[in-house]
Design brief:
The chain is α/β, with parallel strands linked by helices and 133 residues long. The protein is 32% helix and 23% strand. The strands form two sheets. A five-stranded parallel β-sheet has the order 3-7-6-4-5. Helix 3 packs parallel to helix 4.
Length: 133
C-alpha cells in the first residue's frame, strides 16, 4: 500500500526514506493522512525526547511508541519491529562517544525496510544522520 503523505511526501512499502524538514511538515503530513494511518500499524521511535508526539492529533490511536536511550536499545527496537510504518526520530546524542554505531543503525534501518516503510526524520542534518542514511 502506497501512502502519500501531504505533497510531496510519498512512502511506499519496503522502503527506507529520509525526511529533513521542519517538524510541522511531518506533523501536518501525518495529520492530513490520519484516516489512512489508522488502518496501518505505526511505530514511532524517538531518543531522549520526541519532537512530534505532543503535536499529533489525539485521534491518532494506532501508534506504538518506543524510546531508545542508547544505540543498542535502538538496534533491539528495530530488530523487534513488525509495524507497517516505522518513524524514527533522529537523535544525535545516541551516537556521542559511539559514532561507529551510525553505520550499524543504517544497516538495521535498511533491514527493517524489507518488511516496513521506514521514515528517518530530522529537522536538520548532522554527520551521524548522513552516515546513517
Amino acid at each position: 500500500m502506497e501512502l502519500e503523505l501531504q505533497s510531496p511526501l510519498t512512502l511506499v512499502p519496503n522502503s527506507f526514506n529520509v525526511l529533513i524538514a521542519p517538524v510541522e511538515v511531518l506533523v501536518d503530513s501525518l495529520t492530513y493522512n490520519l484516516k489512512e494511518l489508522q488502518r496501518l500499524q505505526v511505530l514511532n521511535v524517538s531518543g531522549n525526547y520526541s519532537r512530534i508526539l505532543d503535536k499529533l492529533d489525539r485521534k491518532f490511536t494506532e501508534l506504538d511508541v518506543r524510546r531508545a536511550f542508547t544505540d543498542y536499545q535502538l538496534l533491539t527496537i528495530l530488530k523487534e519491529a513488525y509495524q507497517t510504518l516505522i518513524i524514527l526520530e533522529h537523535d544525535p546524542s545516541l551516537f556521542e562517544g559511539a559514532g561507529e554505531m551510525a553505520e550499524y543503525i543504517g544497516h538495521a534501518l535498511k533491514e527493517a525496510s524489507e518488511n516496513s516503510a521506514v521514515l528517518l526524520y530530522s529537522p536538520w542534518t548532522d554527520r551521524y544522520l548522513e552516515e546513517v542514511s
